[in-house]
Amino acid sequence: MIAIVDYGAGNLRSVKKAFDHLGAQAVVTDQPEILATADKIVLPGVGHFSSLSALETNGMREALLQAASGGKPFLGICLGMQWLFEGSEECTEISGAGIFPGKCRQFPASVKSPHVGWNSLTIQKSSRLLRDIAQDSFVYYTHSFHAPLLAPTSASTEYGLLFSAAVEQENIFGVQFHPEKSGDVGLSILKNFCEVVC
Predict the structure, then answer these.
(1) Could you read off the pLDDT tens digit of each residue along the chain, which spans 198 residues?
(2) What does each C-alpha distance from 88 to 84, 112, 144, 173 come to in angstroms?
(3) Residues assigned a catalytic role
């Protein structure tokens, strides 16, 4: 069973619908005990980094950290991926999980922000999450802050600069784009996550 985390800031219906389309058993929850029993966890998110403060209110942050450190397959989407880093300049009062080093930063003034629409992926290394995804495939973005490039970056995208489009480390995966809004490519990525064994 896949637990989709509800903290009031995600495209929950779209994410759930995508997993339903794939025939995966998925539930939307804001209960830590459900996360403890789930086989996999998805942390979606849209909006301001401060929205992640809601994870602090009922033990969800601790449950997410325990699941991640315990080897449970974990996928962060958009704001959920940014949470995997140390934090974001968008809201310095809220700490990220710190699973990946560095902070998310705003796009340079040379490009329009937010970055909204379709953009291509440069897949940088062999990846379980991006298995069989063609180089330069297009996916859908909507974000104003970006994650840095680092060793676990499995795909990058260029928009004013190169940033991490996807990260992967052991059982932890993150995508800055929205696979649930990225057509067949996005569904293939979610299918790969459903098939991940850690």
Answers:
(1) 999 999 988 789 999 999 999 999 999 999 999 999 999 999 999 989 999 999 988 899 999 999 999 999 999 999 999 999 999 999 999 999 999 999 999 999 999 999 999 999 999 878 999 999 999 999 999 999 999 999 999 999 999 999 999 999 999 999 999 999 999 999 999 999 999 986
(2) 10, 19, 11, 18
(3) 78, 178, 180
Sheet holding 103-106, edge to edge: 87-88, 103-106, 145-146
Instruction: For domain 2-195, say whether CATH 3.40.50.880 is its number.
Output: yes
pTM (2 d.p.):
0.96
**Bridge-based pairing state of the strands 115-120 and 138-143:** antiparallel
Q: What are the sequence ranges of the domains in the chain?
A: 2-195
Give the residue ranges of DSSP H helices in 70-182: 79-83
Identify the CA nearest to 3 among candidates 193, 142, 175. 193
Contact 74, 68 (CB under 8 A): yes
Contact 161, 36 (CB under 8 A): no
- Between CA 46 and CA 149 the distance in angstroms is 21
| H helix count then E strand count, the chain | 5, 13
User: How far is the C-alpha of 179 from the C-alpha of 168, rounded, in Å?
Assistant: 15
187: which residues sit within 8 A by CB, 6+ positions away?
18, 21, 22, 179
